[in-house]
Amino acid sequence: MDHTTVSAGHNEILDAEQIRSFRERGYLLIPALIDAETVRDYQIIYEDFLAGRVNTLGFRSDLSGALERDCDSSTAPARERITQIMVPSRLQPALLHKAIHRRCLAVSHQLLGDDLALDFDMLIDKAPYSNTETPWHQDSAYWLKLPDTRALSCWVALDAASIDNGCMWYVAGSHLQPMRAHRQSGNKGALTCAGSEGEAVAVPVNPGDCIVHHGNTLHYSRGNSLNQRRRAFITNFRPQAMIDLERQQNYDHTGGRSVKNSKARD
Ligand SMILES: O=C(O)CCC(=O)C(=O)O
């Protein structure tokens, strides 16, 4: 079995109104995708990654660009402003069979089609008082330009996220607009483009809630200015045929950050 194989089961998680709203806005809040006990289970796993008990094999970096990319698990904790760990399910394949992967795959099928499959996953943590925003961007700027642009990111909160500890903000309908020009921030840090809170909506969440957004939806989050965690477990889905195209070009989302989609280049 391929390491990214996930089975969605036959769950219908969303109703027709939620699907309509996602198509119009390019994002959707799904309350309580996982229950409180499941959140606690994931928090334990997450801490194993953050504390370096799982060897993150060079897939851990500071999304802010304040540090060099390849901080290894023995030296990384506490120095990062935004901790990003790519492909956690490659490091711990049991994750593929747990609730987040199964339920998010089912959501992706309902929203964008039954041919969607897991492309990659990642953890993004904003530690208390780390005060560092994730700049405005569209995920598709990070990715190869593909003929089929269906792509879905499922952002599952393992902590309450509010405006002050870095909940997500989205520009409704931006997935239907032309891509904005992106550039890289910091030292090999996150990609960024023009965007502002004035054109966006903040989406505070509770632990266990999931927000999904289309790969072209413009989004951002403020820094964490509270004494409160902000851990997110993120899964990304796209058509299996597009994943095959990516892999044929040796692209699996673990390389360095850069503007890869020429449509989005400054
Ligand atoms: O968690 C964040 O602050 C940013 C997440 C993000 O940009 C994404 O999931 O695409």
Description of the molecule:
This protein has 266 residues and is an alpha+beta fold. The longest helix is centred in the first third of the chain and has 15 residues, at 36-50. It has one domain: Jelly Rolls (Sandwich). It starts with 15 loop residues before the first helix and ends in an 18-residue tail after the last helix. It is built from 5 helices and 13 strands. Strand 8 (183-184) and strand 9 (191-192) form a beta hairpin. It has helices spanning 16-25, 36-50, 88-91, 99-112, 240-248; strands spanning 27-30, 60-62, 82-86, 116-126, 134-137, 152-157, 168-170, 183-184, 191-192, 201-203, 210-214, 219-221, 230-239.
State the major sheet: 7 strands, antiparallel
Low-confidence stretches: 68-73
By secondary-structure content and strand pairing, the structural class works out as alpha+beta
CATH homology superfamily name? q2cbj1_9rhob like domain
- Under CATH at level 1, the class stands as Mainly Beta
Distance between the termini: 40 Å
Topology as H/E string? HEHEEHHEEEEEEEEEEH
Radius of gyration, CA atoms, in whole angstroms = 17 Å
Please name the CATH topology. Jelly Rolls
> What CATH architecture would you give?
Sandwich
Q: State which percent range the strand residues make up.
A: 15-25%
Each distinct ligand = 2-oxoglutaric acid
Q: Strand tally, please?
A: 13
Number of helices: 5
How many structural units, i.e. domains? 1
Strand arrangement within the widest β-sheet reads 1-11-6-13-4-3-2
Helix content bin: 10-25%
Average pLDDT, rounded to a whole number, is 91
How would you describe the shape? globular
**What oligomerization state is this entry in?**
single chain
